[in-house]
Amino acid sequence: MAMQAQEIEDLIRVSFPDAQITITDLAGDGNHYAAEVIDATFADMNRVQQQRAVYAALKGKMDGPNGDLHALALTTKAPE
Questions:
Q1: N or C: lower Cβ tally within 10 Å for the chain?
Q2: String of DSSP letters for 27-42
């Protein structure tokens, strides 16, 4: 089942309420997205920790072949 960009943003926003979040539908199919998440809490994390935190915020929507979200190209960073 495809997801809307707003659904992805809403899930991330729960864990990162002050983040700057940009979601882009890469293929127009609701299954392949890119997300950029910029949040101050990332300042003390390495990139792997940042991305794990965002994936955790998706609450299993990418888990396995039956996940609602097939692919997410993720960029994370702290504000400059």
A1: C
A2: SSSSSEEEEEEE-GGG
Number of structural domains found in the chain: 1
Q: Which domain holds residue 65?
A: 5-77
Tokens of 44: 């003390």
CATH code for position 45: 3.30.300.90
* Residue whose C-alpha is closest to residue 16's, from 57, 60, 75: 57
- Are 67 and 44 spatial neighbours (Cβ–Cβ below 8 Å)? no
First CA to last CA across the chain, in angstroms? 36
What three-state secondary structure class fits 11?
Answer: helix
pTM: 0.89
Residue 16, helix vs strand vs coil: coil
